[in-house]
Design a protein that fits this description.
Order of helices and strands: EEEEEEEEEEE
Largest sheet: 4 strands, antiparallel
Structural class: mainly beta
Radius of gyration: 22 Å
Shape: elongated
Number of helices: 0
CATH topology of the largest domain: Immunoglobulin-like
Number of domains: 2
Number of strands: 11
Length: 141
């Protein structure tokens, strides 16, 4: 993500000089609004919100196994659950704290009791950093 900001020089503010006298600073190497404050338990702490991206579930349609991927820019609490088309919870795939980075979980097509789920439409729901994401997947048998 590239964010560029224009900072006019003092002479560009009302002293007859144009916009060209300012400087453009690129911040593509920074992730605003994050700043490193210190370490807690071996992890960097982030005072600002954590960015999250989710999906896609692959392969889709699903076979007997699938991979569910998500990414976080910093440490956060996360939960990944699976629901059927009627909205019933079928399985909690993960619940806990994750460090920043990419995370991949596999699903074997079974519910929380180890029973094979029938073919149909299912929804993976990721809750992380105070946000909720949903990915639709079709399970084939």
């Amino acid at each position: 993500m590239d964010r560029s900001f224009f900072f006019p020089s003092p002479n560009a503010l009302g002293e007859g000089r144009g916009v060209g006298s300012g400087r453009i600073f690129s911040t593509s190497f920074l992730h605003f609004p994050f700043s490193f404050k210190g370490r807690v338990g071996g992890e960097m702490t982030y005072p600002g919100p954590v960015d999250v991206s989710f999906g896609p579930v692959s392969p889709n349609p699903l076979g007997s196994h699938s991979a569910v991927r998500f990414w976080t820019s910093g440490p956060t609490e996360a939960g990944l659950t699976l629901y059927d088309v009627q909205g019933r919870l079928q399985r909690t795939l993960f619940s806990g704290r994750v460090p920043g980075g990419e995370h991949a979980l596999s699903w074997d097509g079974r519910n929380a009791y180890g029973q094979r789920l029938p073919a149909g439409v299912y929804f993976f729901r990721l809750q992380a950093a105070g946000r909720v994401f949903t990915e639709k997947a079709v399970l084939l048998r």
